[in-house]
């Protein structure tokens, strides 16, 4: 059986963004990760697409925690993307809102995000 591939979006819950804002920020992360994977890990992108594009949204409670997760994703060699808001609606320009990780093997991503809770 082929291993499952997925993408994870880690959102800062401390910002208390509206549902719409959260969805937009998570979408930015998903698109950035998919585009980066097309260039840097096309096999993972294809396997993720073949697997019906699973995306899991998790939460952290601070910017520092988000960057710790990014550090672990970088160390694991996982494609990832930090999202900074443009500041046109709810939050200040440049505010770091979320982190996309993958797509990649679920087992590899779980080593980085497995302890986080669902949003």
Description:
The protein is of the alpha+beta class and 119 residues long. It has four helices and five strands. The protein has a five-stranded mixed β-sheet with strand order 3-4-1-2-5, with helices on both faces. The longest helix is centred in the first third of the chain and has 22 residues, at 19-40. It starts with a strand and ends with a strand.
How far the N terminus sits from the C terminus, by CA atoms, comes to 29 Å
The proportion of strand residues reads 25-35%
Taking Cα atoms only, what radius of gyration do you get, to the nearest Å?
A: 14 Å
- Reading the helices and strands in chain order gives EHHEHEEHE
User: What is the averaged pLDDT score?
Assistant: 96
């Amino acid at each position: 059986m082929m291993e499952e591939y997925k993408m994870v979006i880690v959102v800062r819950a401390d910002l208390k963004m509206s549902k719409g804002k959260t969805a937009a920020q998570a979408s930015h992360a998903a698109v950035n990760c998919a585009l980066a994977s097309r260039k840097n890990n096309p096999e993972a992108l294809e396997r993720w697409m073949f697997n019906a594009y699973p995306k899991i949204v998790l939460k952290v409670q601070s910017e520092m925690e988000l960057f710790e997760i990014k550090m672990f994703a970088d160390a694991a060699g996982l494609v990832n993307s930090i999202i900074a808001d443009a500041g046109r609606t709810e939050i200040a320009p440049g505010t770091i809102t979320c982190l996309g990780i993958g797509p990649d093997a679920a087992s590899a991503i779980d080593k980085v995000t497995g302890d986080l809770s669902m949003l």
